[in-house]
Structures are given as structure tokens and as C-alpha cells.
Design brief:
Layout (H helix, E strand, L loop, with lengths): L9 H11 L6 H23 L4 H17 L11 H23 L8 H39 L8
Length: 159
């Protein structure tokens, strides 16, 4: 079977495969080639759509928690009482991440392909939603910190 460069179109690849066996290429071979191409591109598309893992989510939780803690210290309480609302939101998102992590241990058997693919897609979607929520929380938190720093008197600013 000839090797195809990455820029080869599917129709050209099927044509070359058919030409290599004197024009009477079997339907099975065509389906096999198209299936292999779809499988290869499908995996990449899914990784592109859902790039984050549960480990990324847990790292983001730690980063946001550290940011809140830094700005809640006694000598530098920039957030004031609003820090507790950010902590509650972070706690809620941490619980969601724990539920996602716990569901991973109940993965269906891979012999049931439809159930397994459905489970994996749901997991990837939930991880992505959780990660985006944490990113939005971090953006809101940083905006709040910047706004409060700007509102401090000039001599009291701490960077």
C-alpha cells in the first residue's frame, strides 16, 4: 500500500489504491482506507475540541486557591469580604472536579463501544466546562484585585 503525504485528498488516495490493483479495487479496501483516514482525523479533532484533562483542572484549582490566599493575608487583605464568595465558588468547582475524578473509576467496559464512547465524551465535556469556569473565576478574581489596587491611596499600594 503506498504511503500518502498529509496533503493528499481522500478521493486521490482511494484512486491511487484502486489504480495500484489494476482498477478493480474492492469496495472493502476503499472502505478500509476511508475508515482509517476518518479514524486518524477524528482522534485529532476530539483532542483539539477537548484539550484539557482532569489534571489541568486540578492545577487550575490550586492556582486560583493560591491567588485567593495571597490576597487574603493579614498584611495585604486586598479582597476584603469578597474573598469568601470566590472561595465558595472555588469550593463548588473543586467538588465538581472530584465528582468527575470519581466517575472515571466507573468507566464502562470497552467492549460496549457505544457506552464507552458516550461516557468518554461526557467526561471530556464536563472537564472542559469545569476548566472554563475556573478560568473565568480566575479572570474575575484578577480583575477584582486590580480594581481594588487602583482604588487604594497611592502611598498604600502594594505590588
Amino acid at each position: 500500500m503506498p504511503a500518502f503525504p498529509s496533503e493528499t485528498f481522500i478521493s486521490e488516495a482511494v484512486g491511487e489504491v484502486s489504480a495500484s490493483d489494476n482498477g478493480d479495487g474492492s469496495v472493502f479496501l476503499k472502505i478500509l482506507v476511508i475508515g482509517a483516514i476518518l479514524l486518524a482525523t477524528g482522534g485529532g479533532a476530539i483532542k483539539w475540541m477537548y484539550p484539557n484533562t482532569i489534571e489541568d483542572v486540578e492545577g487550575q484549582i490550586q492556582a486560583v486557591d493560591e491567588l485567593i490566599r495571597e490576597n487574603m493575608t493579614l498584611e495585604r487583605n486586598i479582597l476584603g469580604n469578597s474573598a469568601w464568595s470566590y472561595k465558595r465558588t472555588l469550593f463548588r468547582e473543586n467538588e465538581v472536579a472530584c465528582r468527575i475524578r470519581n466517575r472515571m473509576s466507573r468507566e464502562p467496559d470497552r467492549k460496549d463501544v457505544i457506552a464507552w464512547v458516550s461516557f468518554e465524551m461526557c467526561q471530556m465535556r464536563d472537564v472542559q466546562v469545569n476548566y472554563r469556569t475556573l478560568m473565568e473565576l480566575q479572570e474575575d478574581l484578577m480583575t477584582e484585585i486590580d480594581n481594588r489596587k487602583r482604588s487604594l491611596p497611592t502611598g498604600a499600594r502594594q505590588y
